[in-house]
Amino acid sequence: MSFVNMYYSGRLIAYSVLEQIETISPYFILAGLIGVGIWMIPVSGSNLVDICLDTILFIFGFLSLSSVFGLRAFKEITIIIRALIDNNLKRINKC
Question: What DSSP designation does 70 have?
Answer without folding.
Answer: T
